Amino acid sequence: MKTLPTQPCCCQPTNHTTPRPARHLGLTLLSAITWLLIPKCPICLSAYIFAFTGASLTFSASTFTHKLLLTVVVAVFLYSMFRLTISLMRQNRSRVT
């Protein structure tokens, strides 16, 4: 009788260097820290950009950049919270069975 080569099942856990919930938690914390460090007004953002790069921004460009930066940080935070929740739910479900 001929035996088929065994392949790992898709249901078996894979070896990751960092557990998935820890990676998602790290991304969540990074986006939350970034949210806290963002200047709260567009003029302050423009001053920080000028201090670090030497490039100046107009008020309208600074306002657009500020809103874009806030939107990106919130989107990354929500995405990472979603992924963390899904990962923890899968982990809890695998422990129950």
Characteristic terms for this protein:
97 residues; mainly alpha; 70% helix
Descriptive report:
By secondary structure, this protein is mostly helical. The protein is 70% helix and 0% strand. It contains 3 helices and no strands. The radius of gyration is 22 Å and the shape is elongated.
Structural topology:
Elements: H1 20-37, H2 42-53, H3 59-96
Helix pairs in contact: 1-3, 2-3
Q: Would you kindly provide a brief summary of this structure?
A:
By secondary structure, the protein is mostly helical. Helix content is 70%, strand content 0%. The two termini are 34 Å apart.
The topology string of helices and strands comes to HHH
Care to count the β-strands? Answer: 0
Strand content: under 5%
Share of helix, binned: over 70%
Rg (CA only): 22 Å
Low-pLDDT regions: none
Name the structural class: mainly alpha
Shape: elongated
H/I helix tally: 3
The major pleated sheet works out as:
none
On the 0 to 100 scale, the average pLDDT is: 79
- The termini sit apart by 34 Å
